TrEMBL record:
Residues 11-85 form the Ribosome maturation factor RimP N-terminal domain. This is Ribosome maturation factor RimP. It comes from Bombilactobacillus thymidiniphilus. Required for maturation of 30S ribosomal subunits. Belongs to the RimP family. PANTHER family: RIBOSOME MATURATION FACTOR RIMP (PTHR33867). Its main location: cytoplasm. Residues 88-157 form the Ribosome maturation factor RimP C-terminal domain.
Length: 157
């Protein structure tokens, strides 16, 4: 039997593809006494609140038609943008982040640092190449992907 998030993904993907959107992440979590079904969606030019509302309504209609209910208890459905500093978790995320400014956290120090911010120049299955600023000049650094704890888009100041 498929999990709730897998079932929701199958239901929402046709809705998203109809509008040229894509799914970033699904969360189905209990916070306090309430359950939340959260979908983070995006498109190349960025997603706006009206588009999130459109997907929310269409997915809500699809969920209401399910018999038996996929989620038998009360929950809150939230559809939103992943935000300007969204996590980078999948190969698709990496592809979209290429040539973008990103934040990379490591499990262990590399060159005395556990955190790097720079432009994602390139990547492959084993490593990624970042262009970072060191004082007044830029240099490229290669980071093994197995050493990366987390990555996200970042805002460059």
């Amino acid at each position: 039997m498929a999990s709730v998030t897998e079932s929701i993904e199958q239901m929402v993907n046709p809705i998203l593809s109809k509008y040229g959107f894509y799914l970033v992440e699904i969360e189905y979590v209990k916070e306090g006494n309430s359950w939340y079904l959260r979908l983070y969606i995006d498109k190349p030019a960025g997603i706006d609140i009206e588009e999130c509302s459109l997907v929310n309504q269409e997915l809500s209609d699809v969920l209401d038609e399910q018999d038996p209910d996929l989620i038998p208890h009360a929950y809150f459905l939230e559809v939103s943008s992943p935000g300007a500093e969204r996590p980078i978790k999948t190969e698709r995320d990496l592809q979209l982040a290429k040539e973008q400014f990103i934040h990379v956290s490591l499990y262990q120090k590399l060159n005395g640092q556990k955190v790097f911010e720079g432009t994602l120049v390139d990547y492959n299955a084993q490593e990624l190449i970042l262009e970072i600023k060191v004082k007044t000049h830029k240099q490229q650094i290669t980071i093994a992907r197995k050493s990366i704890a987390s990555m996200r888009l970042a805002i460059e100041f």
